[in-house]
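Example 3.2
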Amino acid sequence: MVWQANEKSSAATSAQLARGAAVYAEACASCHGANLEGQPDWRSPRPDGRLPAPPHDETGHTWHHSDRILLDIMTRGTAAVVGGNYESNMPGFGDTYSEEDLRAVLAWLKTQWPERERAYQAQISAGED
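Structure, written as tokens:
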């Protein structure tokens, strides 16, 4: 399933942000870090050829991607989105969490970014409408 950005993704409610923080803590923090710091040496492949989990703060590249791409990765997993025999430890969570839950995680992540990164990411997401 390919996700489309919509107006709901840019106008987060406090309940949505609380849900996003909770789902992040449950499903994402074990790899991406409780403080969004990612795993050490995240740019260097491990012996199995797979990259460690990147940070989701401004030091990573999450904010370089549109809502559509990020939600697709969260739903189907990185390997399914990238294709071409790419291997990743990032699973898809579409069978575990609802679209609403995954959008909540993304909304919460955005609140953790500085304004410059939020503005850049909003611009590329708007370009996909």
